[in-house]
């Protein structure tokens, strides 16, 4: 651990136990009563800036430390509920959304939160144009028009105008995503760095991006105090929070990847919650009277993808053959037991239009036939980038073994979340095994990810997973666009069903399972509940006895 991190944690608490926990050293005693310590694989975190962060771990941190206009209702995912917004209306033409803000809200800094902060937050997401930028540019916002289209009417009224009469649930769900987090404009601009405009970036400021990579400027129930990559994230209660105050003084996410290490730390009292458990360790926790299990199906799909820039993988027969070289039954019954269910389509169960088709199974003979048809009767060699965490590593090894039976020799390239994501986002992989959590609870989130690629050039502004795998699909992209504008719910669902079956039959994606998130929890912890999405794992009501 760095000296800087040790000093920061020491300032937060004089507890020797707390310092030891965050440092990854053996604890001197049980975790403090006012502190929740979670073991969690957080190596996917790249930035804490809501305008840049787009990883699953960061979504949970952002949702507990920032406020948004609206949030997904964790009890009924067909609805969104107010957060900063007290109420909202949609114009008769379906294109202008007007939000009345709750009065008296303050940022952790003490600055008042107004509609200017909401407008600035959306403006910086659009102009920074990081990975989450497409969430708002898909609504017709751009660097040139965002100041006009997303504006403060008065201190308590925010107005946003979109370019088409989308289904209101789509727009509201976009606003419920963590990149819609509202940041403190005054604080962020005071920390902004000057930038020389260029052909790639037109603005003379970084909009506080460098500061917010590790800093904080929110109004949520917790303040982010520390993030040290691959070590720890520390959240502290925000005493300026205008909602129900958290019961805990702080929450520590302690980076720990191995399931067995998490289980042992939970059993010994070094941690309160274990977040990355594999089936073998789940059984041990289930049989321990001092521990409990909490679980929730997630809108998270795990898949492997085949980069179409690789000439072998660009052959449709090869992509189909790979889908027959996955032992779904064995993976489901062993590696995923308790933490996932086999699911072969891109929409998770529970979303509008989701289907449960599972046409693929392990069939080596069928795969060999397809490879021969592709002109590769002896197979070929290829690499697979894999995040070094379970059950992902185990699934990758299973695929490596079954693929070898058809002559496909896979070299697994392990890495942490940041390494594998960076390579994937640059289209520099061959095969990638990854996970996708819906950015917002609307089928367009996944459809646009896996069935949409409006520009297949390397400098495309919209970098979907289809783009990341260089899959050019003009007709499916048009169909995905059409689904967004279908006002009839049943007809809209039918469009998504058709798109899923087309992707299932002919695409560079093999969808394998839908995640069931499971946490091992100490009996000392009360009120801990996993939500339906990674940004609805709320910590406000958690306490310890």
Automatic annotation (TrEMBL):
GO cellular component: ATP-binding cassette (ABC) transporter complex; outer membrane-bounded periplasmic space
Residues in Solute-binding protein family domain copies: 79-457
Span of the signal peptide: 1-29
Transmembrane segments: none
MF annotations from Gene Ontology: peptide transmembrane transporter activity
Subcellular location(s) of the protein: Periplasm
GO BP annotations listed: peptide transport
Organism domain of life: Bacteria
Primary location: periplasm
Keyword annotations of the record: Signal
Pfam families (alphabetical): SBP_bac_5 (PF00496)
Family that this chain belongs to: Belongs to the bacterial solute-binding protein 5 family.
Protein name: ABC transporter substrate-binding protein
Organism name: Paenirhodobacter populi
